Input
Amino acid sequence: MKKFLFLFMALLLSSSAFANYDFIINNRNISYNEDELKFYENNKLLDENEVRELFPDYDIVLISDFDKNKKYYMKNSLFKSKKILLLNDTRRTFHLFYIYPISSRNQINSDDKDYKVKSLITVYGKKNVRLKHFGLDEFEIVVK
Output
């Protein structure tokens, strides 16, 4: 019985169906997969330029831009905020990863619903932001 419950929970947690959001931006039906950090339209993966059109206020940071220590270095003023969109251009997945600090998490309001989009981040001042997993695996945006 324990094995059955374990397998059922593993299947439930690994299913990407629970990590997809569908919303409307600029009259376009967009899907977001938070385990992949990727955006789709009509089941077609959107490239960096197409995502940039959807979110013109955000600077796109690709996962491949992080160094071998999983760090990305950027400049920001002490009293300014900068909007960042993390976009996965690799085959890696990010199941159960979360953005810290919590105040850096952003959301989209579409059809009177708020969708928490893991890729949308606001960097405040000189405060570093982490995309962190409970298993201590993390990617860090280091602000200089």
In short: The first strand starts at residue 20 and ends at 25.
